[in-house]
Amino acid sequence: MSLGGARPPVRAPWAAALALVAVIAVAVAFRAWAFGGVSFALGSDESRYVAVAQNLASGHMPHGAAEWFGTRLVLIWPVAGLFRWIGASDYTASAWPAVGSLLSVGAAYLLGRDLGSRRVGLVAAGLVAVAPLEVLLGTRLRPDAIMPGLVGLSVWLALRAGRALDERTCVLLAAAAGLSLGAAWSVRESALVMAPVVVGAGWHAGRRALAWGAAGLVAVPALAAILFGALAGDPLRPLTGAGTEGTWRDPVAAWSTDGSYAAAIVRQALDPGALLFLLGPVLVITGAVLVARRERAAILPAAWLAWATLYLELGTLVNLGKPLRFLTLCSIPAALLVALAVDGRFAPLAVAGVAAIAVAALWSLPLRDHRGNDVVLLHRVADRLSTLPHRPVLSESYTWWAKLAAFVPRGRLPVADVKDPEFLDESERRAARRLEPLPDVAAYAGGYVVTGPVIPLQGWPSNWATLEERMRRDVPWRRLRLVATVGAARIWRWPA
Questions:
Q1: Does 8 score more than 70 pLDDT?
Q2: Mean pLDDT of 401-423
């Protein structure tokens, strides 16, 4: 027997399709509510991804060690396409991860439907739609928003391949499963760790299907190698970039009980404002219910969740930290298990409960609180600047200075080589929080000065106040000429 059980696939009638549309609409609404734009904290991955995507949109291929993640075709290149087609902004930078997050919702439905019933699928999709981590990351330009949905789709396609009634359909589904896992690899390379789950889901498909699945998987890195060979003269770059970036360490020395995900789940179990509130108790009760029922449909998601948990707890010790965002890898299998456990007339109440937890956990997000200034107003300012002659732009707000440089670029954007704070000592962390060198105020003569709301955030450089002092001292404020007023912001021309 395959890990997927032996239940035949069930066709969803119009009622289930409409219910799924409603679930996706709720997912969109929650992500729109929590949307706070791209994080431009000093050295953040998101700001670096935006820079590489903007460079690609302008025709500059990734180069140098700091831009290795530009080889992640399915993560960065669609964003670059949106930048080129529509223009760079917080909105276009967040659109692709939002699509990836909604794919997780759809994959949860398909798997729940085929493992249990349409109701199980809808509840699983609803849980992923409103899970706090999924909502938080659903509009953040991070692999964690996109990769899990592609893995989930791969598992579902493999499951269907194992149940296919004819060989042609079987091998096509297997090839599609491999392509989907390959696409997940092109978002984050560690997606390949989930290959055993995909193989287990489609075990009954047979060896020929397995070969086609492997071919589909290999096709994605092969395409990336061909693309980088043709455009950058370096076909091996997509295959070696991530390996050269990592910092390796002794996993035994790196292990810490306090720093484990299990410890985080225990610590946050009874904290109503935490992202993992009640997660531990819910999973324990879910496991007990499913074991008592001897629910065979739970074998696949249970094995999936166990394997993902084992990787996150132990596999990451070699070269990664343990940020909570990695836990999105567990969202779909966890949602499937809960949906199977609560299956019944009142199952939708589980979704409502998780939605309430998400609202409590995300209510006071700093980025969401400042969306009006640092996203909406800034977008209008960037639009106005794009109509003016391109010159350097100075602002007292670090967020505005960094975003305007990225969204209204003047040539190729530099990409900082940033080290994971997990691997820095305290003195190195202090140094990493400083912007070196600070912008030379005099170099902006002949450009623009943008004034408006200045809202310091936690991720600002620790020495940014020095620049603010230099601006107050060195900018000839009386000589500036007002170019445009955009809401509470003003764009000034600094005569050369």
A1: no
A2: 90
Q: What was the pLDDT predicted at 1?
A: 39
Separation of alpha carbons 407 and 79, rounded Å? 13
CA atoms of 106 and 121, how far apart (whole Å): 9
Mean of all residue pLDDT scores within the chain: 92
Q: Assess contact for 205 and 169: CB atoms under 8 A.
A: no
Is pLDDT at 25 greater than 70 in this prediction? yes
Helix, strand counts (H, E) of the chain: 23, 4
Residues 329, 420 within the same domain: no
The confidence score (pLDDT) of residue 240 equals 84
Same structural domain for residues 306 and 406?
A: no
367 has pLDDT over 80: no
Length of the chain, in residues: 496
Q: Which domain holds residue 459?
A: 370-493
- Are residues 277 and 268 in contact, defined by beta-carbon separation less than 8 angstroms? yes
Question: Can you tell me the distance from the alpha carbon of 274 to that of 281, in angstroms, rounded to the nearest whole number?
Answer: 14
| Among candidate residues 183, 176, 180, the one with its CA nearest the CA of residue 161 | 176
List beta partners, residue 393.
448
pLDDT tens sequence across 215-249: 999 999 999 999 999 998 899 998 887 755 566 77
End position of a domain, from candidates 351, 366, 381: 366
Look at residue 143 and tell me if it is in a domain: yes
Q: Parallel, antiparallel, or unpaired for β 448-451 and 489-493? A: antiparallel
Please state, in angstroms and rounded to a whole number, the distance separating the CA atoms of residues 486 and 47: 24
Model pLDDT, residue 86? 95
Instruction: Give CA–CA dist 236/289, Å, rounded.
Output: 49
DSSP state of 463: T
**Cross-strand pairs, 481:** 493
CA distance 370 to 73: 31
* Contact in structure between 127 and 339 (CB atoms under 8 Å): yes
CA distances from 495 to 351, 442, 444, 445 (A): 58, 12, 10, 6
Bigger pLDDT: 424 vs 330: 330
For residues 263 and 374, state if they share a domain.
no
pLDDT at 9: 45
Distant-in-sequence, close-in-space partners of 174: CB < 8 Å, separation ≥ 6: 157, 158, 161, 202, 205, 209, 210, 212, 213, 216
